[in-house]
Amino acid sequence: MQHLSSSPSPRWITQVKGSQIVSILELVQDLIVISLCIGLFSFMVMQLREMFLSLLPPLDFPHVTADILFLLILVELFRLLIIYLKEHRISIGVAVEVSIVSVLREIIVRGVLETPWIQVLATCSFLLVLGALLVIRVWIPPTFDGIDPEQQVSRRHRMRFANELIETNGKDL
């Protein structure tokens, strides 16, 4: 008996539509990230102008320091967005570095002596956790260097399904 397969499989249509939808959604997400990059870059230029104006006399050193640290935070956030656009992943290292600089900025701007001791203790423990995360991330296996666990699981599932299909077809003969 000849099997007529002139009509496309519903599964094939679902896969094509699914891949088209996913690619369109990824494109929209990339456009959102690009618009965030443009907005963040514009904000950095405005902040840089503000920082240079704050360098004029009378010089307010804590304000200048806060502006410089805030600008560094914006640069790191911009770098995080660029890494996302290139690799479609969030860099743990950059995200942790931004968090550390943000916490340290708040401590420097407020001053350690003016901050309640419980908040200093909480900040210290938070910084310890972030530092540990920076150290631990070295031992975390890379999932984006050609090794995608989801694809490996999907490949194993397809191979198991194909083997089961071969076994059932072999038993029918």
Explain the layout of strands and helices.
Blueprint (H helix, E strand, L loop, with lengths): L9 H45 L6 H27 L4 H19 L6 H20 L12 H24 L1
Report on the structure:
The mean pLDDT is 81. The chain is mainly α. 78% of the residues lie in helices and 0% in strands.
Using brief descriptors, characterize the structure shown.
173 residues; mainly alpha; 78% helix; elongated
Mean pLDDT: 81
Given the structure, what is the number of helices?
5
Weakly predicted, low-confidence segments: none
User: Measured on Cα atoms, how large is the radius of gyration?
Assistant: 26 Å
Secondary-structure element series: HHHHH
What distance separates the N and C termini?
14 Å
Brief summary:
Helix content is 78%, strand content 0%.
